[in-house]
Amino acid sequence: MIEYKRYDETTKEIPFAKGFFKGWPNPPSEKTHRRVLENSYRVFVAVDREKNEIVGFINAISDGILTCYIPLLEVVEGYQGKRIGQELAKHMLNELQEFYMVDLTCDNEKQPFYEELGMYKSFGMVQRNFHNQQGVGPKQ
């Protein structure tokens, strides 16, 4: 059974299932993954209650006033195709409905997924420094 929860003090001790960031050339470590979630504005996780593992997550970063950005939505491979990503996205979009602007970027093949959730195409620019996928610490 999959349970959807906010990532907080009660869920941050639940272990991650293996397989997040599959295909990334330089994936973040589990410690960095935890830091990303802990430093986010909002996070929802999908927990496999039988295995007591986090099998999916979505996070948002925000100024807390007008704007939010959803940088990551991931579900580990063995759980994909079971609408877990859709449920995580619905939880997050519901949580962020009071904001003026909720943005994300995705590959073209993912756009229909987000259109089903009421989002629409936009145009933007991105920069990717793949050598930094493992994460960086705070500037000293």
Automatic annotation (TrEMBL):
It comes from Isachenkonia alkalipeptolytica. Residues 2-140 form the N-acetyltransferase domain. GO terms for molecular function: acyltransferase activity, transferring groups other than amino-acyl groups. InterPro entries: Acetyltransferase_Butenolide (IPR053144), Acyl_CoA_acyltransferase (IPR016181), GNAT_dom (IPR000182). The lineage of its organism: Bacteria, Bacillati, Bacillota, Clostridia, Eubacteriales. Pfam families: Acetyltransf_1 (PF00583). This is GNAT family N-acetyltransferase.
